[in-house]
């Protein structure tokens, strides 16, 4: 670890039993504390210096806590590899889904489990694991883990050598992610409403007339369309706290991938597709412009018209590709939640 590492151990003589002035976070210390490394993305939309110190101070009552800030793209992956080597009992990704994704890639193949604290605009993976979306509630949830420590294994999806925790996509949604990420201030301020505005604009400008087309090859099956979504877990994302359901039978421990392909992007279809995605009863996969697949262990998505396709993983834009090869790594990541 570098000089930015923050060691946070309780001072000598510190109170260990709750008293009249004890906050909701301060609980009796366990006999032996587990070592926790918190990886903080200081640029995440809801992370501030004050919140960082509050969270670290709260968790030190139940864990032996170190905290380190990320400094650039990919830094969280490097930190996690070192943390696993140094024998931390848990790594907590405090940021958005991009930070979580980098942490998962760093912990892949190690015995060190991953946990999350919400610090971004969606925090999908954390919510799938059952971690509350509000920071105070999530911190209390982590405190409770000290007395109910249960590590379990989940799958990771892989595309072109990059692991993803819950979803990847090519086409419209990746184009939206690219534009949203280009303006992080508006993303932080308006959250899902900004995503919606960008989605409408991107659809109208690029996907309404002559959009890039793609072809999905899955065994003997072939699907063609303008957008492909591949999921390792469900839901695909959240609009605030409302789950957006896309693929069917996607689960973190299924050992398979599920997904959907949007065949055409026609104006009169999109409102009905959006309604099905938000509905708790209607199924998106049953729309006439949607082709769906499930129980896949490998698939390939290629450009069908020689135009490169935008690619995203866990809400992080990776660039344009001509081909994306997907596979699944069953039980590849340890998590505690």
Domain module tally: 2
Helix content range: 25-40%
The first-level CATH class of the largest domain is given as Mainly Beta
Radius of gyration: 21 Å
Largest sheet, spatial ordering of strands: 7-6-19-16-9-10
Overall 3D shape: globular
Descriptive overview:
The chain is an alpha+beta fold and about 325 residues long. It has two domains: about 5-150, Rossmann fold; about 160-330, Sandwich (Tumour Suppressor Smad4). Helix content is about 30%, strand content about 30%. The chain contains nine helices and 19 strands. The protein has helices spanning about 50-60, 75-85, 95-105, 125-130, 135-145, 170-180, 185-190, 190-205, 270-280; strands spanning about 5-10, 35-40, 65-70, 90-95, 115-120, 150-160, 160-165, 165-170, 215-220, 220-225, 225-230, 235-240, 240-245, 255-260, 290-295, 300-305, 310-315, 315-320, 325-335. The strands form four sheets. It has a six-stranded antiparallel beta sheet with strand order 7-6-19-16-9-10, with helices on one face. It has a six-stranded antiparallel beta sheet with strand order 15-14-11-8-17-18. The chain has a five-stranded mixed beta sheet with strand order 1-3-2-4-5, with helices on both faces. α2 crosses α3. The radius of gyration is 21 Å and the shape is globular.
């Amino acid at each position: 670890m570098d000089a930015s590492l923050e060691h946070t151990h309780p001072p000598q003589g510190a109170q260990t039993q709750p008293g009249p002035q004890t906050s909701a976070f301060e609980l009796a210390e366990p006999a032996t504390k587990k070592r926790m490394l918190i990886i903080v993305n200081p640029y995440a939309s809801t992370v501030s210096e004050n919140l960082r110190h509050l969270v670290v101070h709260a968790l030190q009552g139940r864990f032996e806590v170190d905290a380190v800030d990320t400094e650039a793209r990919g830094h969280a992956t490097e930190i996690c590899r070192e943390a696993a080597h140094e024998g931390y009992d848990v790594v907590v990704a405090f940021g958005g889904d991009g930070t979580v994704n980098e942490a998962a890639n760093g912990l892949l193949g190690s015995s060190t489990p991953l946990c999350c604290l919400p610090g971004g605009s969606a925090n999908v993976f954390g919510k799938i694991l059952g971690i509350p979306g509000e920071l105070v509630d999530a911190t209390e949830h982590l405190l409770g883990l000290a007395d109910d420590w249960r590590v379990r294994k989940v799958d990771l999806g892989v595309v072109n050598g990059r692991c993803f925790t819950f979803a990847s996509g090519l086409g419209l949604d990746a184009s939206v992610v690219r534009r949203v990420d280009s303006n992080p201030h508006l993303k932080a301020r308006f959250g899902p409403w900004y995503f919606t505005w960008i989605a409408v604009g991107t659809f109208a400008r690029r996907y309404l007339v002559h959009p890039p087309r793609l072809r999905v090859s899955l065994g003997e099956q072939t699907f063609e369309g303008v957008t492909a979504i591949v999921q390792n877990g469900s839901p695909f994302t959240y609009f605030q706290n409302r789950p957006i359901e896309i693929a069917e039978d996607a689960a973190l421990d299924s050992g398979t991938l599920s997904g959907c392909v949007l065949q055409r992007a026609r104006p009169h279809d999109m409102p009905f597709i959006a309604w099905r995605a938000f509905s708790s009863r209607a199924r998106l996969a049953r729309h006439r412009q949607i082709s769906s697949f499930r129980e896949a262990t490998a698939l390939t998505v290629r450009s069908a018209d020689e135009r490169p396709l935008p690619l995203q993983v866990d809400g992080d834009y990776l660039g344009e590709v001509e081909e994306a090869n997907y596979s699944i790594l069953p039980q590849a990541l340890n998590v505690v939640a």
